[in-house]
Amino acid sequence: MYMKAKIVFTLTLFLLGLCSMASAKVYLVSVGISDYPGTKQDLKLPVNDAKTISWLYSKNSNAIYKQLLNQQATAANILKALQETFKKAGTNDIVVFFFSGHGYPGGFSAYDKLLSYDKVRKAMAKSKCKNKMIFADACYAGKIRTPGKNSGNAIAAAQKANVMLFLSSRSDEVSIERRDMENGFFTTYLQRGLRGGADTNRDRIITAKELFNYVHAGVVKLSGDEQHPVMWGKFSDHMPVMVW
């Protein structure tokens, strides 16, 4: 009798958890920069990457997103979008910052100038949401862990802010894009994973651990072991990243 009651109680908690996650809203800021004016460092696929992630999350009826492409994606506009979009999120909602473009040690290359991770973190910290994540598809993305002169310690900052960072490559690797593909290698497997490919237990909730395992394996195989996504920060392996 005791065992039956315990099973019923456990099942009830599980179902309540599913209902809570299913009702969670997603707040997304999606940035893609293919055109870097005045340089020879233009990219082919970041705009497509950002559009793909925006479309994917917009399929979720609760998703609210802001998309910034090329000249729209100035450092000031990105920070403004993060603050205005994420302040609407509740404690149990999900906030996502997706960036595809160039990175640099300690941050991101916006359309007009460098944008430090510390500024992004502070903008995200203003949200009361406890499920915060950053996806970055950028060459040498892992260098966010190697702070520049004034960028602060990105690792400690991520841990303090309870932010999950999922980066497309190690600090000494390029993030590969191929002309015959619609998205970069990382974004290709990221969107496949979020569409259900990473949901290994088929509970329709994709967790951080499930997503990492799926994306990492796919990118490493597709790149011939030349690109290795990394994930770090202070978060639970079971943190929901998508309810699909």
TrEMBL record:
<protein>
    <submittedName>
        <fullName>Caspase family protein</fullName>
    </submittedName>
</protein>
<feature type="domain" description="Peptidase C14 caspase">
    <location>
        <begin position="31"/>
        <end position="232"/>
    </location>
</feature>
<dbReference type="GO" id="GO:0006508">
    <property type="term" value="P:proteolysis"/>
</dbReference>
<dbReference type="Pfam" id="PF00656">
    <property type="entry name" value="Peptidase_C14"/>
</dbReference>
<dbReference type="GO" id="GO:0005737">
    <property type="term" value="C:cytoplasm"/>
</dbReference>
<keyword id="KW-0732">Signal</keyword>
<dbReference type="InterPro" id="IPR011600">
    <property type="entry name" value="Pept_C14_caspase"/>
</dbReference>
<dbReference type="InterPro" id="IPR029030">
    <property type="entry name" value="Caspase-like_dom_sf"/>
</dbReference>
<feature type="signal peptide">
    <location>
        <begin position="1"/>
        <end position="24"/>
    </location>
</feature>
<dbReference type="InterPro" id="IPR018247">
    <property type="entry name" value="EF_Hand_1_Ca_BS"/>
</dbReference>
<dbReference type="GO" id="GO:0004197">
    <property type="term" value="F:cysteine-type endopeptidase activity"/>
</dbReference>
<dbReference type="InterPro" id="IPR050452">
    <property type="entry name" value="Metacaspase"/>
</dbReference>
